[in-house]
Specification:
alpha+beta, 3 domains, four-stranded mixed beta sheet, 18 helices, 14 strands, elongated
């Protein structure tokens, strides 16, 4: 372990455990008891405490972590506070999702405390595994539990005069390590704590709202004893936010790398032939209102309605003329959600992901897979959602003589399409493909119903509120 401070903290924990062992062991059995705890035998010392300290000092730095993990597993020789310190020291060396204090408070304010109160004995047991709740004390010859656990019993359970946020403050949950707070959330929604699946899901729904900001969610990953299991996972698959978006061009843009060190690009096309969004994209993603503001300011348009009209027309013009199904999807998205569009992710057409100054002929057809995306949505939490409209060319090829040509299944083309999907998925993009048969103009009512169902569920998955107009 490279961090000297972490080594020192772990050694202090081992020393305390060794001292605890010495306090209950006999001189004859001390080395045996130390060995059971993963510690080496003492080689000097004229008393049990000195021998125990000597044993702790003999543990090599690179074994301290393993020894502490063993002590945590035995759950015998560490005080509650030392146990917490040991866990946090171990977790510091691992990668865990960061949950900022503001998000923690937002979660506390969103959690329905009545559900935890209804399952209080199990919830209280969970808290005891994660925090030092202390011991009861004697006041004025009467037994009164003045410990933290006793205060929680009185104020959160019996008197019901603590909110969940006040409970979190008393526990120190707002300042706890990221891993401890994650375990608290996962424990709160587990079947071991809340023995009612509907209540479990209500808690998850409440907690996942604030978790959208850091790009996290409690996701159902399995079941245990008949109850769903939820784990904290990252929805922000990409590390970092987009630096610039090159979109709105169905032909290859003319780009120049003007600073290779900073990866700065210059677009040499006319500014209206290729669109470049280079403003910061925050936790809420890139919404239509953000895109419209950028368009309005860069084109010096004073009227909001005019800016909206011009932007929509410009995006529509970038769609390939021979792709009516792609156009239908674009139009339907804006018509279905016209009343709430400003707060929804902007549907960006013809977005460039790869760019190469050489041609496909020079580089090879498989050099760059999925160089341009039909549509991209930048959702809250850093999610990047790709929508692709697949015609027959994605899975079939034309065969036969002139005048007798027909489409036939083509395994190579289908494999190429699947390779594109895998490539994007592994790069952290969420990919959804539509067949052109699903997007026929003559079946417009069915198309709208299908797209409404899809986008409603997509928005629900990413915690995006999108009420639609009633008519």
């Amino acid at each position: 372990m490279a961090d000297p401070a972490a080594v020192e903290r772990l050694r202090e924990i081992v020393l305390k455990a060794a001292s605890a062992i010495a306090s209950v062991s006999t001189a004859a059995k001390l080395d045996e008891d130390l060995a059971r705890a993963g510690l080496p035998p003492s080689v000097s010392g004229d008393s049990k405490p000195k021998r125990a300290a000597n044993s702790a000092a003999l543990v090599p730095a690179d074994r301290l972590r393993d020894v502490v993990l063993g002590l945590l597993h035995q759950d015998t020789w560490l005080s509650p506070q030392d146990r917490i310190t040991a866990q946090d020291c171990i977790w510091e060396q691992e990668q865990h999702p960061t949950i900022e204090k503001r998000t923690r408070r937002d979660i506390a304010r969103a959690v329905p405390g009545n559900i935890l109160a209804d399952h209080y004995p199990r919830f209280r047991a969970l808290l005891g595994t994660l925090f030092d709740l202390g011991q009861g004390q004697i006041f004025l010859l009467q037994t009164r539990d003045g410990s933290l656990g006793g205060q929680i019993d009185r104020h959160f359970h019996h008197n019901d005069d603590w909110t969940v946020e006040e409970l979190f403050d008393a526990l120190g949950a707002v300042d706890a390590s990221d891993r401890r707070f994650a375990l608290l959330l996962e424990g709160m929604v587990s079947g071991a704590t809340v023995t009612d699946e509907a209540a479990q899901r209500q808690l998850v729904e409440a907690i996942n709202g604030p978790l959208t900001v850091p790009g996290l969610e409690l996701r159902e990953t399995g079941s245990a004893d008949g109850y769903p299991v939820f784990e904290l996972v990252a929805t922000r698959a990409r590390g970092g936010r987009p630096k610039q978006l090159i979109f709105g061009s169905s032909r290859k843009p003319d780009l120049r790398l003007i600073d290779a060190i900073d990866n700065d690009l210059e677009v040499l096309d006319h500014h209206d032939d290729v669109l470049v969004y280079d403003r910061p994209i925050g936790p809420a993603g890139l919404r239509w209102r953000d895109l419209q503001t950028w368009w309005q300011e860069t084109h010096h348009i004073e009227d909001d309605a005019e800016a909206k009209r011009q932007l929509w027309q410009r995006l529509g013009r970038s769609l390939p003329r021979n792709a009516p199904h792609q156009t239908l999807l674009f139009v339907e998205y804006h018509e279905i959600y016209s009343d709430v569009l400003p707060d929804l992710p902007a549907l960006l057409p013809e977005v460039w992901r790869h760019w190469d100054h050489k041609t496909v002929k020079e580089r090879g057809k498989d050099a760059l897979v999925q160089f341009r995306m039909d549509f991209l949505l930048l959702a809250p939490g850093g999610a990047r959602i790709v929508l692709e409209v697949d015609g027959q060319t994605h899975y079939a090829s034309e065969q036969g003589r002139r005048g007798e040509r027909r489409w036939s299944p083509d395994g190579d083309r289908y494999a190429h399409t699947m390779a594109q999907t895998r490539d994007l998925g592994l790069a952290g993009y969420e990919v959804y493909r539509f067949g052109t048969n699903e997007l026929e103009e003559e079946d417009k009512d069915e198309v709208r119903a299908m797209l409404t169902h899809f986008f409603d569920n997509l928005f629900r998955r990413h915690r995006i509120a999108a009420p639609r107009r009633s008519n």
